[in-house]
């Protein structure tokens, strides 16, 4: 074996067609080489003479669980902007097929944790602040003096009236959020939990 130098029976070896001369590896060293490549991306894929070793060449001698892990690693390395489980104790790769693109959330098949594919953190409600489109919206909201509802995360614009975002907006002509959460338009806190003024003249008079 060119790796460990041991003399082993021929049936326990595998010959790789390297150039100019083929190299012989024992099965144990090949398994160790593949195992190391799974934990160190610089060693992936496993190579001999800088030439990748085809998995099909070694499939018969590798344990089934290692072949499964290797196939997953191939998918991970081929995935643009991959997502990993946010749990530090897990941190496994989340395959694209396990991502709900509508919600932008990936489900880890190892621990069932749910990770936001945009910010790579724990699943959260509402818009992800790391989404470039959301960043643009938040910038427009800041310049336009909009307020974000703490309950549903939607943006609300006050055109006139007091700063009380009321659940009865449709009846009293007050401004309200679609989720009917009551809050202060100035600071965004729940109504009657802040010290903001209840109104300002330029809002009471329709702008």
UniProtKB/TrEMBL annotation:
InterPro entries xrefs: E3_UB_ligase_RBR, IBR_dom, TRIAD_supradom
Catalytic activity reported: [E2 ubiquitin-conjugating enzyme]-S-ubiquitinyl-L-cysteine + [acceptor protein]-L-lysine = [E2 ubiquitin-conjugating enzyme]-L-cysteine + [acceptor protein]-N(6)-ubiquitinyl-L-lysine
SUPFAM superfamilies with a match to the protein in the record: RING/U-box
Protein name as catalogued: RBR-type E3 ubiquitin transferase
Classification lineage: Eukaryota, Fungi, Dikarya, Ascomycota, Pezizomycotina
GO biological process: protein ubiquitination
Annotated RING-type domain residues: 1-207
EC number(s) reported in the record: 2.3.2.31
Signal peptide bounds: none
Species this protein is from: Clohesyomyces aquaticus
Keyword Nucleotide-binding in annotation: no
Enzyme class: transferase
Record-linked Pfam families: IBR
GO molecular function: ubiquitin protein ligase activity; zinc ion binding
């Amino acid at each position: 074996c060119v790796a460990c130098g041991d003399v082993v029976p021929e049936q326990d070896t595998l010959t790789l067609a390297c150039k100019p001369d083929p190299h012989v590896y024992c099965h144990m060293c090949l398994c160790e080489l593949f195992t190391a490549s799974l934990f160190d991306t610089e060693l992936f894929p496993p190579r001999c003479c800088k030439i990748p070793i085809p998995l099909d060449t070694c499939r018969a001698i590798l344990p089934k669980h290692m072949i499964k892990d290797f196939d997953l690693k191939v998918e991970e390395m081929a995935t643009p902007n991959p997502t990993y489980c946010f749990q530090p104790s897990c941190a496994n790769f989340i395959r694209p097929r396990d991502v709900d693109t509508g919600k932008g959330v990936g489900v880890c098949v190892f621990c069932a944790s749910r990770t936001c594919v945009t910010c790579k953190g724990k699943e959260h409600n509402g818009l992800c602040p790391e989404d470039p489109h959301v960043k643009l919206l938040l910038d427009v909201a800041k310049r336009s003096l909009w307020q974000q509802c703490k309950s549903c995360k939607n943006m609300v614009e006050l055109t006139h009236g007091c700063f009380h975002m009321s659940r009865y907006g449709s009846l009293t002509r007050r401004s309200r959020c679609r989720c009917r959460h009551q809050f202060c338009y100035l600071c965004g806190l729940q109504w009657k939990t802040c010290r903001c003024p209840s109104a300002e003249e330029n809002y009471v008079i329709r702008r």
